[in-house]
């Protein structure tokens, strides 16, 4: 979203131009100084050159930027929809006290906002395509873009405003099930730590090919037999021949995954 | 347009289905016969299988068909815009007695309808893209298509209806300048007949490579010096060594281009 | 897919036309019968009317049809990806005996084919958009479509062929975890049967509003406290005042969901 | 193109990031300093946060920027195609001495490069749409974008490079028919000056409505009867009652259209 804000600022700045250069852009009946004065009153910069119109690459730049913002919102919406599905259930969209569920199924709490946002992004994306088609006008000034822009400009700007507001509301009131997050991590019987085992083996001198083979055969069995990976590795003589019980246990520690969290936050949000 | 009508009929037929199969499509609470009866009342066929929704490939098929119709209208609109440009001027959109021209330029009669139709096609095309994105719903039944269809369905159906009506009006009242058509043909100093000369030479036994060279050198000169091609060919001894004056003159006859017009009309519109 | 086959047949049929009507479509140098004969040799029908080219709405129809097929494949691929995620795990793409997992994580068995197919559909969809832009050519015969079609025709036809083959392979070897399907159904503590309870209450004379309220309050508690819905309803005097223990138990039967399976199969695949 | 260069610089800068943060972006097995060092060696900045992948809004930004550049090239190509048509003929693509014309028509010099560029822009535009669909990946890191990017990245970057080179070559060798430009201006019998007459009348005190009516009736007649507008106005007593012969003649001067050309050039290219 920081990137999108930067993109939007650039897209907006290059759009904030005006023109008053006459029907063919020659200032034949109106001095360029009038354009400068009029634009200043409107908070605009004069377009350095114009025809009957301002060139539509500016508008397409603006609308593709809105499509990028919409797609970024969609990415978050897709994430929320995944996290809310019954089998995952790590988050839930807030459900008002008075709010009724699905008409057929009283228990259902659907990710209605996230689904709505996912769809709306398709509209903004489609409109960006139409905006790009508006660029190659005949003689740099036919009027075929006009009927298009009467739809895509209000639709896209209103939609992105709505999407930003709705996403903010969803995130502000998001119900987060931290316990479920940990439980889901544990669903894999420790398989999420397989890479740490692989690295520990290679650091202990095992050739990577062999280490991979050892880990994979235990990982596969763990997966198929729903047995903790740590247990299987502890019973594998080739593995225990190289890694001590303590070294093996250390591989199943979540701590390394959390060690750099503060660094990452500082990189994104500043110190 | 005959093809589009056939496409539309197929697209409409596959859309005219209904469903009443319950929240997960199992008819758990409602016998399939109820669906059959309800659909019959609505003039619909029951979808053979459905989930909470009817699958969106049907709707995408419908909207891509509208985009094909819109693009075909756009093709005609682009043709009219070309034919109306000042330097060509073979047709003009009718201009009402009371209608004012451009606000700045009282003489201007712009192809406003054709430009409008060109733009609107971009909207219908963009909506078809959004409809295609609606097909891969999660578990064949998420609701993300809903926010999209609330826009693209009314917009695309209304737009195509409007476009068809507006195109019909334009064509009904189109001003055709037949004299200008002939004049434009003559702009080329007879170059449009160069292929007939080429064929006449090869039929008279000249190797195609040589014939091409002879015609091209005269064609180029005709083009650059604004001299009738027939005149230059008549003065070219290599050409006249093979083609008599009468044979050469016959190459500049428009008749062969018109000989099969009735055949073509019969093929398109029936005998 | 049955619908797609029908669409493809229609799209293919309308594409299988040829033309040999000369540079401006007038048959000036070549009798229409030559076109008929030549087309017959190629298994084509003559286009009833043509310019220098065959009109591009035919090609756009063909490519939007491929995009519909690709989107339908994408829908199945999205379904498989969902079903394969660790927390759901109802199916898995087959994993060859010799196949290595992720390079970093030896245990990982990703839905690589389904993800690949999901992406490829975006390409075919994008190409359909370009094909639609090819329709409004200048004077119904400029050559701007040529550079486009050299890419989108081989790309889209090869991609859809590849996608169909790859999807078939995935489905042929799909590992299905039926036990896990049942387990996932049970994850909801019986909430999936809430609609049956609601209907039973209303059939027993409870006003729908009240019935909804009774079911919802128990459904909510079941969801939040991870308690079987049946248990909670059995302890709710308002509910048990209307429904007997047997009537309540009947609501939690899966049988009604399976009662019409054979009917549905017969509707889709024939008796 | 100056705007496009600025857009490209911004798009490129935000793409030039790298990541080495591990399979889930936690730096679990590799200190962030390694990422910083590795990126520095590659001339990249570390992405402040990453998952298994770098977020695809960056790539979509890059590809929509290429689509903007392609659309701007298309705009110029469309202009050249218009200017080259037989009835306009203000410019021509250069035609090599050895180059053959159309195989059927030896005289034809088609705007082959401009038509090619028009088509290629559709491909780059379509690819930008696919890039936007790549943004909302599952859990911010599925791999469905991979199969898409293997096509759209090489295709779009190579195409835009080719388009820029080809457009440059066309413009470097463009044949400009200045005489024909003047002749085309005169095709309108002076109607292009109607706005100057309108303004002169209003400046002389005629109400705008009346002035418009006077000019339009003469403009219409000029257009329909192919008579110079100046001649008709000179014979219109209402007009001559207000404007002297000299004042009327001044309206038909091209000079005001050229008065600010240097100002415009300075605004675009610098003093």
Characterization of the model:
Four copies of one chain form a homotetramer. In chain A, 63% of the residues lie in helices and 3% in strands. The first copy, chain A, is an all-alpha fold. The relative contact order of chain A is 0.08. The model of chain A has no long low-confidence stretch (mean pLDDT 94). Chains in contact: A-B, A-C, A-D, B-C, B-D, C-D. At the A-C interface, helix 7 and helix 8 of A face helix 7 and helix 8 of C.
Relevant terms:
homotetramer; 271 residues; mainly alpha; two-stranded parallel sheet; two-stranded antiparallel sheet; 4 strands; 63% helix
Write the layout of secondary structure elements.
The structure is a homotetramer of 271-residue chains.
Chain A: H1 2-15, E1 17-18, H2 32-41, E2 45-46, H3 57-84, E3 91-92, H4 112-133, H5 144-172, E4 175-176, H6 178-186, H7 194-203, H8 208-225, H9 229-234, H10 237-240, H11 245-251, H12 255-258, H13 261-269
Parallel strand pairs in A: 1-2
Antiparallel strand pairs in A: 3-4
Helix pairs in contact in A: 1-3, 3-4, 3-5, 4-5, 7-8
């Amino acid at each position: 979203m920081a990137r999108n804000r930067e993109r939007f600022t650039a897209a907006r700045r290059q759009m904030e131009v005006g023109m008053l250069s006459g029907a063919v852009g020659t200032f034949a009946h109106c001095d360029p100084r009038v354009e400068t004065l009029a634009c200043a009153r409107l908070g605009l910069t004069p377009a350095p050159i114009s025809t009957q119109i301002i060139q539509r690459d500016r508008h397409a730049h603006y609308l593709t930027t809105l499509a990028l913002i919409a797609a970024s919102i969609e990415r978050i919406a897709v994430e929320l929809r995944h996290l809310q599905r019954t089998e995952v259930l790590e988050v839930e969209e807030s459900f008002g006290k008075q709010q009724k569920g699905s008409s057929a199924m009283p228990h259902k709490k659907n990710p209605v906002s996230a689904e709505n946002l996912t769809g709306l992004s398709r509209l903004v994306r489609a409109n960006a395509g139409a905006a790009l088609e508006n660029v190659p006008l005949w003689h740099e000034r036919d009027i075929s873009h006009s009927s298009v822009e009467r739809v895509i400009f209000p639709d896209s700007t209103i939609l992105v405003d709505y999407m930003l507001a709705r996403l903010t509301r969803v995130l502000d009131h998001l119900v987060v099930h931290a316990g479920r997050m940990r439980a889901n991590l544990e669903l894999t019987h420790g398989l999420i730590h397989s890479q740490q085992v692989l690295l520990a083996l290679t650091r202990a001198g095992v050739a990577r090919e062999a280490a991979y083979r050892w880990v994979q055969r235990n990982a596969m069995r763990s997966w198929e037999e729903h047995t903790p990976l740590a247990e299987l590795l502890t019973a594998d003589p080739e593995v225990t021949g190289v890694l001590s019980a303590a070294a093996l246990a250390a591989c199943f520690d979540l701590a390394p995954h959390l060690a750099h969290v503060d660094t990452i936050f500082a990189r994104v949000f500043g110190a």
